[in-house]
Design brief:
about 120 residues, mainly alpha, 5 helices, about 0% strand, ATP_synth_I
Length: about 120
């Protein structure tokens, strides 16, 4: 579990760096709806990643005790994604829809890139 928590900490740091870049893009460019969509989607993507990590921790604890767990929180993560898309549809002049969808996929991209980096680093040793 310790390796899992360090992986989450590393990925969270990468996503926060991306969010900082998006905020700078929102503040200093004329593409404010696009960057606001990226900010919204990436923020909810980070929230969904945090929810998943929390549920996996709970799952591990329940399995150690020999119990059963209903789900890993798919409905709450989907509800957050639907909320972001509904905001983009309701306020298209402020939030770009495609950017929200790209932002929602950010944590999955960061997980894959981080996994490849760790794989290459482990092969070098």
């Amino acid at each position: 579990m310790l390796q899992f928590k360090t992986m989450f900490t590393r990925e969270r740091k990468y996503i926060v760096y991306l969010l900082a870049i998006y905020v700078l893009g929102w503040g200093f460019t004329s593409y404010q709806p696009i960057f606001l969509g990226l900010i919204l989607g990436t923020t909810l993507s980070l929230f969904n990643l945090w929810l998943l990590v929390r549920k996996i921790d709970q799952f591990g604890e329940v399995m150690e005790k020999g119990g059963k767990m209903r789900s890993l929180g798919l409905m709450s993560r989907m509800a957050a994604a639907i909320f972001a898309v509904l905001l983009a549809v309701e306020y298209p002049e402020y939030i770009h829809l495609i950017s929200v969808v790209i932002g929602l996929m950010t944590s999955y991209l960061v997980i894959m890139i981080d996994s490849f980096i760790q794989l290459f680093q482990s092969q070098k040793k």
